[in-house]
């Protein structure tokens, strides 16, 4: 482990230097004090698992296929917990984030290609945030879609303000917004009165071959649930806690509580995603063509001919408020991840405000062009959002394979912290299975042209 540390110091410095090793941890604290001290990074990671991309894929999946794809959300969430555990462990043990580790163990050319793919994945994530925020502004305040797209560029000011408050306060704000989103959808699902036996049956994987539409939606859910950029983010912000890196027992304790934090927060994200799909199925099953956009969903929640007796303007407003909160929440993590990836892969450090403007500016371009070309047609934006989530699923193996490889290596992690055989086996099964499904999706999609 000492040898590895020397190599790290000779590389490109700590990840996210401004927050690295800054949050104090109580010495000899109780389980609950330690859990509280380590809680936070998992919330920033969980935000990516309940962003606007999840909303359209999960609600759309419920409206079109009922409760069938609940099993996909369950499996995706379990995969996410496994991968985020590996990511946090990689950062804490090696003091490298995934981008740094990948760049260190690959050639310059391959590292550059992987950086491009990862940047495109971050753009795909940001596209979902832009679309979600734009449509939420339209629904709540009546702003034209084109104006909303342009306004989302300026959320960089919000991020800069939050960064001045300190990392611990950012974590608290994010956790509060997650709670708001969860409460909104708990309320809406309770009002919708779903068929509970059918819900429970939906968590059991069905023995059937998915058709192209179901496969596209399933992979969209996977891409929206298991976010590749979160692996880079978690491996970095897990290093924000101040521990003695030379004490292997303290490192082991940090890994254990980071895992607790991650799994608790991802369980909350799992609940939100389930609520989204259940809401789509309970209220809109059989009406999938009438709820294909966020605006249609907003209107359907107050249309008794679609949502039944539970329809009301209150449900619509709550939906739009939660959508706006979700998009803004994800802005924070998108910026941090962009910084991690750029610094880790190509060793380039630029000011946060410049990084945010570049990332958001590049992400706004396709949304802006789509809005102008289709004359503000929201259906086109929602289609763009769904395919951005499918791209995330296609990009996922590029992040998964190095992560499983590095955390399974005795040379990189040490004997104590390398993955047990069963963890490595599960990791490789997930990576191979997703890669095969993605190849099938690409072939079928190309065959339809």
Describe the SSE topology:
Blueprint: H1 2-10, H2 31-38, H3 41-47, H4 52-65, H5 70-94, H6 98-104, H7 108-141, H8 145-151, H9 156-165, H10 167-192, H11 196-202, H12 212-225, H13 228-237, H14 248-284, H15 294-300, H16 304-307, H17 313-346, H18 352-373, H19 378-407, H20 410-413, H21 421-447
Helix pairs in contact: 3-10, 3-13, 3-14, 4-12, 4-14, 4-19, 5-12, 5-13, 5-14, 5-19, 6-17, 7-8, 7-17, 7-18, 7-19, 8-18, 9-10, 9-18, 10-14, 10-17, 12-19, 12-21, 13-17, 13-19, 15-17, 17-18, 19-21
Outline of the structure:
This protein has 449 residues and is mainly α. The protein is 76% helix and 0% strand. It has one domain (2-447): Amino acid/polyamine transporter I (Up-down Bundle).
Please bin the fraction of helical residues.
over 70%
Radius of gyration: 21 Å
Task: Give start-end ranges of low-pLDDT stretches.
Answer: 1-11
Number of helical regions: 21
Order of helices and strands: HHHHHHHHHHHHHHHHHHHHH
Shape: globular
The name of the CATH topology is Amino acid/polyamine transporter I
Number of beta strands: 0
Separation of the first and last Cα atoms: 53 Å
Number of domains: 1
Main structural class: mainly alpha
- The CATH superfamily is known as Amino acid/polyamine transporter I
Going by CATH, the architecture would be: Up-down Bundle
Mean pLDDT: 80
Largest sheet: none
């Amino acid at each position: 482990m000492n040898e590895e540390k020397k190599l790290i110091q000779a590389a490109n410095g700590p990840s996210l230097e401004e927050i690295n090793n800054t949050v104090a941890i109580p010495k000899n604290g109780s389980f609950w004090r330690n859990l509280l001290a380590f809680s936070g990074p998992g919330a920033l990671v969980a935000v990516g698992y309940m962003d606007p991309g999840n909303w359209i894929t999960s609600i759309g999946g419920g409206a079109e296929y009922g409760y069938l794809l609940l099993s996909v959300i369950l499996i995706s969430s379990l995969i996410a917990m496994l991968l985020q555990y590996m990511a946090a462990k990689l950062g804490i043990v090696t003091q490298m984030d995934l981008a740094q580790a990948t760049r260190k163990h690959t050639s310059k050319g391959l590292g550059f290609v992987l950086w491009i793919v990862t940047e495109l994945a971050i753009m795909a994530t940001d596209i979902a945030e832009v679309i979600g925020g734009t449509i939420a502004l339209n629904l709540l305040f009546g702003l034209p879609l084109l104006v909303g797209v342009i306004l989302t560029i300026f959320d960089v000011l919000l991020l800069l303000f939050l960064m001045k408050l300190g990392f611990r306060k950012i974590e608290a704000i994010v956790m509060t917004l997650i709670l708001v989103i969860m409460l909104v959808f708990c309320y809406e699902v309770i009002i919708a009165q779903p068929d509970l036996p059918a819900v429970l049956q939906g968590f059991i994987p069905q023995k059937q071959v998915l058709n192209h539409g179901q496969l596209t939606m399933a992979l969209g859910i996977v891409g929206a649930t298991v976010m590749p950029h979160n692996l880079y983010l978690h491996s970095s912000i897990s290093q924000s806690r101040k521990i003695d890196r030379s004490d292997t027992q303290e490192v082991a304790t940090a890994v254990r509580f980071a895992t607790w934090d991650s799994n608790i927060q991802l369980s909350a994200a799992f609940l939100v995603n389930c609520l989204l799909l259940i809401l789509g199925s309970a209220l809109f099953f059989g009406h999938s063509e009438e709820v294909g956009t966020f605006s249609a969903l907003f209107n359907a929640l107050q249309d008794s001919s679609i949502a039944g007796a539970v329809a009301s303007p209150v449900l619509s407003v709550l939906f739009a408020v939660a959508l706006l909160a979700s998009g803004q929440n994800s802005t924070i993590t998108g910026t941090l991840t962009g910084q991690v990836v750029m610094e880790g892969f190509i060793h380039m450090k630029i000011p946060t405000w410049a990084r945010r403007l570049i990332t958001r500016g590049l992400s706004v371009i396709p949304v802006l062009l789509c809005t102008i070309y289709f004359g503000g047609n929201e259906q086109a934006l929602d289609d763009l959002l769904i395919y951005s989530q499918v791209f995330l699923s296609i990009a996922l193996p590029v992040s998964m394979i190095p992560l499983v490889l590095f955390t399974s290596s005795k040379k990189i992690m040490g004997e104590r912290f390398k993955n047990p055989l069963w963890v490595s086996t599960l990791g490789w099964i997930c990576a191979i299975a997703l890669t095969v499904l993605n190849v099938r999706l690409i072939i079928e999609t190309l065959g339809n042209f």
